[in-house]
Design a protein that fits this description.
Layout (H helix, E strand, L loop, with lengths): L1 E2 L8 H4 L4 H8 L11 E2 L2 H10 L7 E5 L5 H7 L5 E6 L2 H13 L4 E5 L15 E6 L5 H10 L6 E7 H8 L9 H9 E9 L4 E2 L6 E8 L6 H16 L5 H4 L5 H8 L12 H19 L1
Parallel strand pairs: 1-8, 3-4, 3-6, 4-5, 6-7
Antiparallel strand pairs: 2-9, 7-10, 8-10
Helix pairs in contact: 3-4, 6-8, 7-8, 9-12, 11-12
């Protein structure tokens, strides 16, 4: 894991452009709490995040919530073939459109709500997502992208540190839950950088972390993903309950009997493999009952 404040890489592009603080002032782009905005303005940090995405040569990168464009500039300094910035805030769209004029063949901008848009339609494979996500929608965004795991080569995403720890948590730990099961079932996940509040403008109330998410080669089909969502929602919905109670709404008695999993256990003790077994069995039992 890397603390980005110890990094001293330079960003050649940033040094030749108007400073981000001047851009923010000129456009009146104050960070808005309602949009979950906390801007990264230090080019040493944004350069490091772009580097953590790996070799982007020949890759098409999607960035969600670029804000004033600090990370966008760093991504344009990589050998990525194209960068597509998706932004909901009209003020920030104007900022990124200015940057796109200098890179008309590499940077494009879409004014849209990323929660309501299929980002895979924006560029061809191989695709990466690299983003300092708006914290208020980071989790639903991630789950939506996990549903499309086969479409993404890699995701390098900034979250609140607690959310990052939930994504990467192991069984029998305080942070282990539904998000960790879904994430690790679909991908290899690791925290690769942590950042204190002071790295952002304005500073959030908590530390943040970058998570590297690399989807597995084999991805669940949509019906199986839905089954896993139902199983994890039930199992962790009342996490202090034993499985025989929490899974009752899913015909838990038959589900546990079929899988051989002890109904007196609790959800946080189950491995990813055991949740996979529950999801597959739930899907099979549901298909049989519907036939």
């Amino acid at each position: 894991m890397i603390n980005a404040l110890n990094s001293r890489e330079s960003n050649p592009l940033s040094s030749s452009l108007e400073s981000l603080r001047d851009v923010i002032s000129r456009h009146g782009l104050d960070a808005r709490k309602a949009l979950g905005q906390h801007f990264l303005l230090d080019p040493t940090i944004t350069t490091r995040i772009a580097a953590l995405a790996g070799n982007l040569s020949g890759r098409h990168v999607v960035e969600v919530g670029p804000g004033p464009g600090g990370l966008t500039r760093a991504l344009l300094d990589t050998p990525a073939s194209t960068v597509t910035a998706v932004e909901l805030d009209t003020r920030a769209v104007a900022v990124i459109n200015e940057l796109a004029q200098a890179f008309p063949n590499r940077l494009s901008v879409l004014e849209a709500d990323a929660l309501k848009h299929d980002l895979t339609a924006l560029c061809p494979a191989p695709r990466h997502i690299v983003a300092n996500l708006p914290y208020n929608v980071a989790t639903p965004l991630l789950v939506g992208w996990l549903r499309q795991g086969s479409e993404w080569e890699r995701m390098t995403l900034m979250f609140q540190q607690e959310v990052a720890e939930r994504i990467c948590a192991e069984p029998n730990s305080a942070h282990y839950g539904r998000l960790g099961v879904l994430s690790q079932w679909c991908a290899q996940c690791a925290i690769v950088m942590t950042l204190p509040p002071g790295a952002f403008s304005p500073p959030p109330a908590v530390w943040s972390a970058v998570v590297s998410i690399t989807p597995h080669a084999a991805q669940p089909e949509p019906a199986l993903f839905k089954a896993m969502e139902r199983v994890t929602a039930a199992a962790f919905g009342q996490r202090r309950k034993m499985l025989r109670g929490s899974l009752k709404s899913l015909n838990g008695e038959a589900l546990l009997a079929e899988t051989g999993i002890d109904g007196t256990r609790r959800a946080e003790t189950l491995s990813i493999a055991e949740f996979d077994l529950l999801a597959r069995t739930h899907q099979t039992l549901s298909q049989k009952s519907a036939a």
